[in-house]
């Protein structure tokens, strides 16, 4: 268990630091070009996500995300106690990742974001982003487990661009991004709406994913 929690902590630290740190670098270098800054942020996020899942997946399952931990608990593939421990570690280690980014870039260590992200369009984007992420994990893990790192990384890379919210799809990183007034931030007041949408998307994905990935009854010919 100690190794599993350590893997979740390390993964959450580097994933959250990767999202925030690449956002800071992109904003600093792109001279106001938001599209190029988002592209740089996207590439860095997808890259670090692939590495972390490939490296730490065999140890902890590489959740790094409360909706993933909750989804596995609902499917009775992870015990509730373990899921709660994972979520606590994801939040704490992710917050340390944000603090590390602020320290690396000589920013105020303690911050609150002022970037507004709210409205039906943004919430819909988060619900869809989270639905797709959890569905990708559940179905790929059942049908083609060796492709999970690439599938998840590529999904998030795409979802940065096809969703209105730029695909947070993760309650822990949503909370942590509210603690950073940088390119990837979200105002604390807007966090509950995002998390509610993420939970809706996760619940739908658990139902659909279970149906899609279920083994057919003996003799079923499709």
Automatic annotation (TrEMBL):
Its membrane topology, per UniProt?
A: Multi-pass membrane protein
Spell out the InterPro entries in the cross-references: Aquaporin-like, Aquaporin_transptr, MIP
Q: Where are the transmembrane segments?
A: 37-59, 80-103, 123-141, 153-173, 193-214
Q: Where in the cell is it found?
A: Membrane
Q: Which Pfam families did the record assign?
A: MIP
The yes or no answer to whether the keyword Transport is present is yes
Q: Which UniProt keywords apply?
A: Membrane, Transmembrane, Transmembrane helix, Transport
Q: Chief localization class? A: membrane
Which Gene3D superfamilies does this UniProt record tie to the protein? Glycerol uptake facilitator protein
Q: PANTHER family, from UniProt? A: AQUAPORIN NIP1-1-RELATED, AQUAPORIN NIP2-1
Q: Which family does it belong to?
A: Belongs to the MIP/aquaporin (TC 1.A.8) family.
> What is the recorded name of this protein?
Aquaporin
